[in-house]
Design brief:
The protein is mostly helical. Helix content is about 80%, strand content about 0%. The longest helix is centred in the middle third of the chain and has 26 residues. The relative contact order is 0.10. It is a multi-pass membrane protein. Keywords: Cell membrane, Membrane, Transmembrane, Transmembrane helix.
């Protein structure tokens, strides 16, 4: 019963915060629990992130398929400072995702804080959840910075 209560709370938080993604996700999970489809939850947990990233990547790549972005646009972009900075940003983001994954393997309980922090970011900062790996990567970075500061102060 505890899971259902938490899902209802998440639905209410999503409605109050006008976050249809949180509301819809919590509703779908609640329906699955209420109609006794819990046996599919481990598969959703295991593959949900992959499917979410797949659809996110498809959404980002649609302009290429629609030929709104052509090879000339790509070369022009990558020869400008914003394009080079974007390239560096993508590389740094994937590096941080890897560090986040490593942190979650060492300390999987961190996912609770990451999920709650993501919900707060969605509801109060109007953010968009793109996955726990980036949140974990940023957390790993912040933990390193706070450890470095603590070492300097002691």
């Amino acid at each position: 019963m505890n899971g259902e209560i938490i899902l209802v709370i998440l639905i209410v938080v999503g409605l109050i915060g006008r976050s249809p993604i949180i509301t819809t996700a919590a509703c779908l999970l609640l329906v699955m629990k209420l109609v006794h489809l819990e046996r599919y939850l481990p598969s959703m947990e295991r593959r949900g992130l992959e499917f979410g990233l797949l659809f996110l990547t498809i959404g980002v790549l649609v302009p290429f398929a629609q030929e709104k972005v052509v090879l000339r646009d790509i070369t022009n972009t990558l020869t400008t400072w914003p394009g080079i900075v974007a390239l560096a940003g993508g590389a740094i983001a994937t590096y941080m995702n890897g560090k986040g994954l490593a942190m979650l393997k060492i300390d999987p309980q961190m996912i609770v804080g990451l999920v709650l922090g993501s919900i707060l970011g969605i509801v109060f900062l109007r953010g968009i959840p793109v996955g726990p790996l980036m949140a974990a990567g940023i957390t790993a970075f912040l933990l390193k910075v706070t450890q470095w500061i603590a070492d300097k102060l002691s």
